[in-house]
Amino acid sequence: MRNVVIVGTGPAGLTAAVYAGRANLNPLLISGPLPGGLLTQTSDVENFPGFPEAVNGYELMTKMQEQASHFNVEFLSETVESAELKPGGPHKLHLSSGETVECRALIVAVGSSPRWLGLESEEAFKNRGVSACATCDGAFYRGLPVVVIGGGDSAMEEANFLTRFASEVTVIHRRDALRASKIMADRAMNNPKIKFVWNSVVTEVFGENEVDGIKVRNVQTGEESVINCKGVFVALGHVPNTKAFAGQLDMDETGYISLEGATSRTSMEGVFAAGDCADKRYRQAITAAGMGARAAIDVERWLEE
Fold this sequence. Notes:
Blueprint: E1 2-7, H1 11-22, E2 28-30, E3 44-45, E4 55-56, H2 57-69, E5 74-76, E6 80-84, E7 91-95, E8 100-108, E9 112-114, H3 120-124, E10 130-131, H4 134-137, E11 145-149, H5 153-162, E12 168-172, H6 182-189, E13 194-197, E14 200-207, E15 211-218, E16 224-228, E17 231-234, E18 238-240, E19 271-273, H7 285-304
Parallel strand pairs: 1-2, 1-8, 2-5, 8-19, 10-17, 11-12, 11-17, 12-13
Antiparallel strand pairs: 3-4, 6-7, 7-8, 9-18, 14-15, 15-16
């Protein structure tokens, strides 16, 4: 029986591991399908404190893992397929290997995944012009044209943010009206640096070593066209990686774990959550790390009680 198991090795999970390790809780850290989380797929990270010259995302997560390893943290390269949660514990995790792990306290830090278009060319240009985070990567496109794909609040927020850097922002939306709230839609529609291409879908991202543009098809007429750009921001929302815990933890309609007030406590006694799986507003490495610290402190106090 483990004192605490942490599921997920992104900034939230690794920070929780550092805090839990320093508290002599000897945590077990289960990596999940993407060790290090989404940040390992990001090139230069300029907005994480302590790295004035920017740091490669993979390198940053490697440093976090090295730091956690100094504090009696055990790493397990596995994926949680399902869970049996019990108020107050013990909690049982079923792994992809067929093994089972039990713990008194559980920290869920499984993160979320962007919704992508599903194009082969999109996959080929990820981190070379295709991104799902304007806050992370927008500053790399100063004075350059970019496109945003989507029509909801997140897409309008991304588009408005990108106007701080890009020469122009083109929003591609498959319908003839935005799904965004009126205030967000109006803000984007009234921004002179943003233009819209309606009733259209992206069929290809093209370029040599980096993105040079996209091919677009009008869904009503079938007409195809080309838009030259250097950055493609896919803003179709995120999907929290919480499937293994569905039906056992309170979540919103999209699968984000609900927390108790300003704590990391979930609806299940002895289960805590941190990072992007419980945060659909900010989704930043630094906020995830802060939530990981909060979760570990909550676990330590809960175990003492």
